[in-house]
């Protein structure tokens, strides 16, 4: 630490300790916290304490948490984090009613333990806690007292401290701490009810993930007992966490999987789905939940089912290279083939068919189409009927299950229930969105093998019904429904636009024409989704001419003209941004109307984007400009510089479309993302156009005085003066003269960044209370 800072800091602590003294505003305090955190992490605080031992007295005996704001207390705790002689204060702070204070005190305990037991002599630290330094022993005794306590808050605090310790500290001492305290942790399971079950689960998972502790057989025994003692809702997170571990006993994995499967197994039993089907819990420990163990309240039952479905949804993709269904639904590109580290595997065997049957049964219970003839089934019907939360969770999991195989009979039931939800007027907009996403996943998983250009026969039949439903949903009075329908159409077209069966069915429907009409929708979100759908349909040649006579008599605009009209006239930003994304994709993919005259297309789009008031539209305009640059000069790489002939032609084309006018203006845009994107674009161009070894003598190049003057005016905020026609040589000369790297560094700094030294900060805070003389403050 700077000596001057060390001199000023005790005086500042006196100020913070005195409730009568006014302190600086929160911004100064936050900056002080950030600075001192860096100091303590660098170890400088040890020297500070040696030089100023009086700080111990000040911080632990003078300050009381109730006198401090949360930010000042955080500062105090960070400053005091390396003291090991005042452990009695930790107990006081840890019991504070403020969650912030208690959490900070817990972190402080862990910090003190780590500092006391880590270091050069760590290898000589005994694994027996009673051989540790006095401060560490006192903390361990405090944790033991908390774990023995009958007060649940004290137990919770101790479990939180241990979770933090085992999650963030990796020294050998953590083994000794676990050996000392694990019997007390296990003894918590003997109480009825088990205290602090959520904190206990967090602790066991933290220990299981620690490479220093996961080899302890006692850990797995305690985990198995915890799964048995907690309720299914409480045990769910522990079971899911166990199944995501790379290494744990197989018997425990089976038991954990059984915990997650039990609620769904109960649904199958209650709805009489089990006969003739392999049991859902075959190979998993435990029995089916009895009728009287079903949570008695609707909220508890709903919570249990949603939790089980969510945990199972995360487990299903943990195998091979299958992608999550959400990636398909979002139309994400496939990942690379780069090797990946070992990943946890989903449980095997995976009961795909029973899980499909259970989810279909849950969805039928929710929409009222199930007809159970048992007492338990009747209770489920009453509790789940119309429950949107369970419907959403079940549809999410159903979409994920599309990655696995299933009997044809069950797959038919899956499509049937999805169509029921899509058709039903009772389906809420959020449920409809989930139903569309799950349907997309199942249709994509039903695509024919590579080499064929059609869907499987049953999927082709479903597609016809689906397009009829989609046509109605695109006419819904609810804008969220129209929006979800357009999103589904966009993704389905992106993946299946080249398949003959899909093309034939789509062109025979009214969906493309309705999509075009929705470019005029009163809701901007819908217009944006319509733009994306029109972009995909046009890319695959699926926008047919209008079939109605009144539209046929009117000259029809091309999709390009329609989207240009949206870009230049729509009053909302969302549709205009969507247009720019479509145009960039068209340019990169060589869309026919764009490839016919790319220069004219780019010039028209950049002219519109450069004057747009929405900064995201301007950023997208620069993205399109970058795509055009890459088409002319090739991607950036090791041999980045373009050949002289190609470079000359490219620069002339860039000048014709006025790309440089747009890029140089954007360089001084008041919205930082625009300026950053422009800087990146110009750096890319300079790398392509100017070799690093090329230095031009002064006076050899063209006169760029007027250009540089215009740039200075733009930087000063005068945006009216255009550059006029630019010659390629002038552009290269300006690029040579600009320090784009320095500008890039400046733009990368935070928006409120100002160079301020810690010494200046301390001086100013003290000056606000008159501790310093009149001439000592550095008011930055």
UniProtKB/TrEMBL annotation:
GO terms in the biological process aspect are: cell population proliferation; DNA damage response
Q: Which keywords fit this entry according to its UniProt record?
A: Cytoplasm
The superkingdom listed in its UniProt entry is: Eukaryota
The record, for InterPro entries, names: ARM-like, ARM-type_fold, BRAT1
Q: Where in the cell is it found?
A: Cytoplasm
Question: GO cellular component annotations, sorted alphabetically?
Answer: cytoplasm; nucleus
Query: What does the similarity note say?
Result: Belongs to the BRAT1 family.
Query: By its UniProt entry, which PANTHER family does this protein fall under?
Result: BRCA1-ASSOCIATED ATM ACTIVATOR 1
The protein depicted here goes by the name BRCA1 associated ATM activator 1
């Amino acid at each position: 630490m700077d000596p001057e800072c060390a001199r000023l800091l005790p005086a500042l602590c006196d100020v913070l300790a005195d409730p009568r003294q006014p302190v600086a505003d929160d911004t100064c305090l936050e900056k002080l916290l950030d600075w001192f955190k860096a100091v303590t992490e660098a170890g400088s605080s040890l020297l500070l304490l040696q030089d100023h031992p009086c700080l111990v007295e000040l911080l632990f005996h003078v300050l009381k948490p109730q006198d401090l704001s949360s930010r000042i207390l955080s500062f105090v705790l960070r400053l005091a984090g390396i003291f090991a002689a005042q452990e009695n204060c930790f107990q006081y702070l840890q019991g504070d009613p403020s969650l912030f204070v208690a959490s900070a005190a817990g972190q402080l305990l862990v910090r003190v333990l780590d500092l006391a037991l880590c270091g050069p002599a760590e290898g000589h630290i005994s694994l027996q806690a009673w051989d540790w330094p006095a401060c560490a022993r006192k903390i361990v005794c405090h944790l033991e007292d908390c774990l023995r306590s009958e007060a649940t808050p004290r137990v919770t605090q101790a479990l939180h401290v241990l979770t933090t310790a085992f999650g963030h500290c990796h020294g050998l001492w953590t083994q000794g701490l676990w050996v000392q305290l694990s019997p007390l942790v296990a003894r918590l399971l003997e109480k009825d009810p088990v205290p602090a079950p959520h904190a206990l689960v967090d602790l066991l998972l933290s220990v299981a993930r620690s490479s220093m502790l996961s080899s302890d057989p006692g850990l797995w025994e305690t985990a198995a007992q915890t799964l048995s003692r907690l309720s299914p809702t409480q045990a769910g997170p522990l079971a899911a966490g166990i199944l995501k571990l790379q290494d744990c006993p197989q018997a425990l994995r089976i038991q954990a999987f059984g915990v997650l499967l039990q609620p769904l197994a109960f649904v199958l039993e209650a709805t009489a789905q089990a006969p003739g089907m392999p049991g859902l819990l075959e190979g998993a420990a435990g029995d089916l939940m009895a009728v009287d163990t079903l949570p008695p309240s609707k909220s508890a039952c709903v919570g249990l089912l949603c939790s089980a479905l969510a945990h199972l949804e995360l487990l299903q993709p943990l195998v091979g290279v299958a992608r999550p269904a959400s990636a398909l639904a979002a139309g994400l590109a496939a990942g690379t083939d780069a090797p990946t580290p070992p990943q946890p595997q989903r449980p095997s065997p995976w009961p795909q068919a029973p899980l499909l049957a259970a989810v279909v049964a849950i969805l039928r219970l929710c929409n009222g189409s199930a007809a159970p003839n048992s007492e338990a089934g009747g209770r489920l019907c009453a509790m789940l009927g119309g429950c949107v939360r369970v419907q959403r969770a079940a549809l999410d999991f159903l979409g994920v299950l599309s990655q696995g195989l299933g009997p044809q009979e069950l797959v038919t039931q899956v499509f049937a229930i999805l169509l029921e939800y899509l058709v039903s007027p009772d389906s809420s907009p959020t449920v409809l969105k989930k139903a569309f996403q799950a349907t997309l996943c199942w249709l994509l998983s039903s695509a024919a093998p590579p080499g064929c250009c059609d869907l499987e026969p049953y999927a082709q039949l479903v597609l016809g019904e689906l397009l009829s439903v989609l046509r109605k949903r695109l006419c819904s009075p609810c804008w969220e429904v129209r929006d979800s329908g357009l999103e589904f159409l966009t993704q389905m077209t992106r993946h299946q636009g080249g398949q003959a069966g899909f093309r034939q069915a789509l062109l025979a429907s009214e969906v493309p024409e309705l999509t075009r009409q929705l470019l005029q929708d009163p809701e901007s979100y819908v217009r944006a989704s319509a733009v994306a759908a029109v972009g995909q349909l046009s890319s695959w040649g699926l926008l047919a001419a209008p079939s109605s006579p009144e539209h046929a008599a009117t000259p029809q605009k091309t999709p390009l003209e329609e989207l240009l009209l949206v870009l230049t006239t729509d009053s909302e930003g969302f549709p205009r941004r969507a247009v720019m994304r479509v145009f960039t994709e068209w340019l990169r993919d060589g869309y026919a109307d764009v490839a016919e005259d790319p220069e004219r297309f780019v010039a028209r789009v950049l002219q519109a984007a450069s004057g747009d008031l929405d900064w995201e539209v301007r950023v997208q305009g620069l993205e399109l400009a970058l795509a055009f640059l890459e088409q002319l000069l090739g991607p950036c790489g090791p041999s980045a510089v373009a050949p002289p002939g190609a470079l000359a032609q490219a620069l002339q084309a860039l000048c014709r479309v006025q790309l440089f006018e747009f890029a140089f203006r954007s360089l001084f845009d008041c919205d930082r993302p625009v300026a950053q994107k422009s800087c990146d674009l110009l750096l890319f161009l300079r790398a392509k156009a100017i070799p690093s070894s090329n230095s031009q003598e002064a006076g050899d190049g063209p006169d760029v005085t007027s250009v540089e003057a215009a740039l200075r005016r733009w930087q000063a905020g005068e945006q009216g003066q255009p550059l006029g026609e630019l010659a390629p040589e002038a552009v290269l000369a300006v690029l040579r003269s600009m320090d784009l790297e320095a500008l890039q560094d400046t733009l990368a700094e935070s928006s409120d960044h100002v160079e301020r030294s810690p010494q200046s900060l301390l001086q100013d805070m003290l000056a606000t209370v008159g501790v310093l003389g009149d001439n000592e403050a550095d008011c930055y």
